[in-house]
Amino acid sequence: MWKTPIYEFKPKHGFKTLSYSSIKIDVTHSAPKMVNPGGQLVSIFKKIIERKNPATTTILDLGAARLRNSKFFVEKKFQVYAAEFEELFKKGSKTEERLLELKGYKNFHPLIFPEDIYAFNQNFFDFILLLNVPTVMPIPVERICLLLIIRRLLKSNGSFIWYSDPMIRVGKNNYANRYVRKFFDGYLPGSKKKATETFYVELHENEIETMIESCGFKIDFEYSNELKKLSYTNIVYRSKPKDRIVFSRALNLDDMIKQGTVPKNGHYFSTEFKSTLELLAEGLKSTKEGRPDAYRFQDIIGNTLRYIFKRQLTDMKIETHAEGIRVDVTFRRKNKKGFFKDLEDIYKIPCPYIFIECKNYSEDPGNEEFDQLDSRLKNRTGLFGLLVVRKIQDKAKCLGHCIRRNRDSDNQKKVIMVLEDTDIFELIEAKIKYPNEITEFLHKKLKKILL
Fold it and tell me: Sorting pLDDT into bands at 50, 70 and 90, what band is 403?
């Protein structure tokens, strides 16, 4: 992983829409040509360094490109570390001149990516800048790994800035589609194949927020909105390392980051391109039933549901307590169109929060498992819960549990829905291929309980 800035893909990796024998993507070609940051970036930079002491504040410019942003902070006397592929530092006379210029400052420290970053101690930086970096990375899991590295490098009270330019021309209208080629989840600019390509993926805000939160960060939305006002149409987030990291355990990414490669054994996958949901599906398939993998199963289910319902659910918590009772996974419901809004609007089932219990064993759930989730469902916090298990042998008996819980509850409002592995895989496939079918899938399950 990241041993070179050049990625070579062959048809076996899955780009079926292009009739090429191979494609080479050089991520250093995406580096902006400008020698200084634009006015919008300068406004954001001034905002984030307000009341910060340069002498005691360390900043990492991760993916520093041609050092245009590093120079701004160096001249403000901050301790600046700039990490980039060595190939880019040597690319072009202007970049070499800028590097030589900044080396004249005692508060500037160039780093070669990734080896110097791997060698850094944990909790070192006060600020990390991630400006237009994940959106030019062609392999989704590497975007996640980069965020996990940032999480490790930040001080406990530090923060990182995500900034990306949404390329509105790409994928949004017919004019753009004549000049780009679809490639995996992004685009190759231009209509003809080149010796080395550049890549861009337009990540929408829901996707970015889900990815950041899955890596153990808490987004400061109020502050982020202030930064967005300064950036006009660009996407900006400030996040702090607050929540527990659930992604690394769900997908065994710690080994991948430590080794710099994808593990050949254990729970993981090949280096072929896969979306985050496909990776989670593979993780679920490789998770063994039983207590040893119980927490991994819980993390995979939490992250999978977070990605599937990212427009409807937010604020995922793992292993929290609701009114003194432990809950495996909880979500807060957004007031957005979809199944969970229908629960309130159509069926009058209160669900400000969604409670989920995960059971990683082979036996069918019985009274004890239903009682456990039932006890978490209250009028004030929510009357809908999901019981996620590996496999149901006696489906009629399991449905009978769900029906009885609903019939016995006050005003028949309490609902426990059971999902097994096959349901999770079906939801993942629907999210990737037929997202409009997700709501109908859940409505059918709900109908069996209510009618």
Answer: very high
Instruction: Determine the angle formed by the axes of helices 39-48 and 68-75, rounding to 10 degrees.
Output: 40
Give me the torsion for CA of 345, 347, 349, 355, rounded to 10°: -90
In the CATH hierarchy, which fold is given to the domain comprising 275-450?
Trna Endonuclease; Chain: A, domain 1 (3.40.1350)
The mean pLDDT value of the chain amounts to 87
The amino acid at 375: S
Residues whose CB falls within 8 Å of the CB of residue 130, separated by 6 or more in sequence, listed in order:
62, 63, 146, 150, 160, 161, 162, 163
Per-residue pLDDT, averaged over 371-394, amounts to 94
Instruction: Provide the whole-model pTM.
Output: 0.84
Q: What is residue 387's three-state secondary structure? A: strand
Selection from 406, 417, 422 nearest residue 443 by Cα: 417
What superfamily would CATH give domain 6-249? Vaccinia Virus protein VP39 (3.40.50.150)
pLDDT at 324: 66
**Nearest CA-CA partner of 18 in 141, 199, 176:** 199
Pairwise CA distance, residues 5 & 84, whole Å? 10
**Cα–Cα distance measured from residue 39 to residue 16, given in angstroms and rounded to the nearest whole number:** 41
Q: Model confidence over 106-163: pLDDT tens digits?
A: 999 999 999 999 888 789 999 999 999 999 999 888 899 899 999 999 999 999 999 9
Question: Where along the chain do its domains lie?
Answer: 6-249, 275-450
Q: Quick check: 352 pLDDT over 50?
A: yes
Q: Please compute the mean of the pLDDT values over residues 58-77 and round it to a whole number.
A: 96
Compute the half-sphere exposure of residue 451: CA atoms within 13 Å on the CB side of its CA.
7
Across 416-436, average pLDDT: 94
Contact 380, 355 (CB under 8 A): no
Domain pair 6-249 / 275-450, same fold: no
Contacts of 249 (CB under 8 A, 6+ apart): 295, 296, 299
Residues 6+ apart with CB under 8 A from 35: 66, 68, 94, 98
Q: Which residues have CB under 8 Å from 217's CB, separation 6+? A: 147, 151, 160, 239, 240, 241, 242, 243
pLDDT at 427 over 80: yes
